[in-house]
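A reminder from the course coordinator: this example appears on the midterm review sheet, so study it carefully.

Given structure:
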């Protein structure tokens, strides 16, 4: 009898990928809080997780090449597209990053990432116990 990790772990491995990508975007937003005309980005987690768990590419746009020597790009499966955040109060220099909002979102995402890791850790412990017959 074989063990299917996909069925044993559910959507949690996809959730880790989406949360990791969201952490990168939020960190980028914070790093560019003082960059003129920088537009804050985020991920719709629910939509991205649905697409990742369905095995679909989250990107609906296809890269266009202008020369026959260009490499044809494919969107990476499971990596969600980012969307620009609508600012509550944009700054005069065109930057849409709200540092307080980004810090709160980053902390919430980090907590949810750790929760998913803890859940996966307990799942692996259960699987190891089942393999050992404990």
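Designed residues:
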């Amino acid at each position: 009898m074989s063990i299917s990790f996909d069925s044993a772990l559910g959507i949690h491995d996809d959730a880790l990928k989406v949360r990791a990508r969201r952490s990168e975007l939020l960190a980028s937003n914070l790093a560019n809080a003082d960059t003129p005309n920088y537009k804050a980005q985020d991920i719709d987690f629910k939509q991205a997780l649905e697409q990742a768990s369905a095995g679909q590419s989250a990107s609906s746009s296809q890269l266009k090449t202008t020369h026959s020597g260009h490499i044809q790009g494919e969107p990476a499966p499971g990596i969600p597209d980012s969307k620009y955040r609508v600012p509550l109060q944009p700054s005069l220099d065109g930057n849409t990053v709200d540092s307080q909002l980004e810090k709160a979102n980053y902390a919430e995402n980090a907590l949810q990432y750790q929760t998913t890791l803890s859940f996966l850790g307990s799942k692996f412990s259960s699987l190891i116990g089942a393999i050992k017959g404990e």
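The mean pLDDT is 81. The CA atoms of residues 65 and 71 lie 8 Å apart.
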